[in-house]
Amino acid sequence: PDDITADALAGLSQTPKTLPSKYFYDARGSQLFEAITQQPEYYLTSTELSLLEASMTSIAQAIGAGVHVVEYG
């Protein structure tokens, strides 16, 4: 098998399941990553949102007026 097949089989046979991040950077990898982050088992998205919501007032006070925060990822 090619490298991606071998990597996928190895990673998806583990608990917890993993895939090497090197496959996340092409168009298909980006689609897969987006799908993964929407799964209930992927807690990072909801945890990040909860932290931002809980801290948004403090963050806004710390950075001051007229500042725009842009999150590219």
UniProtKB/TrEMBL annotation:
Pfam families: Methyltransf_33 (PF10017). The keyword GTP-binding does not apply. GO terms for biological process: methylation. One of its GO terms (molecular function) is methyltransferase activity. Keywords: Methyltransferase, Transferase. Residues 5-73 form the Histidine-specific methyltransferase SAM-dependent domain. Transmembrane segments: none annotated. The keyword Acetylation does not apply. It comes from the Bacteria. This is Methyltransferase. It comes from Xanthomonas vasicola pv. vasculorum NCPPB 890.
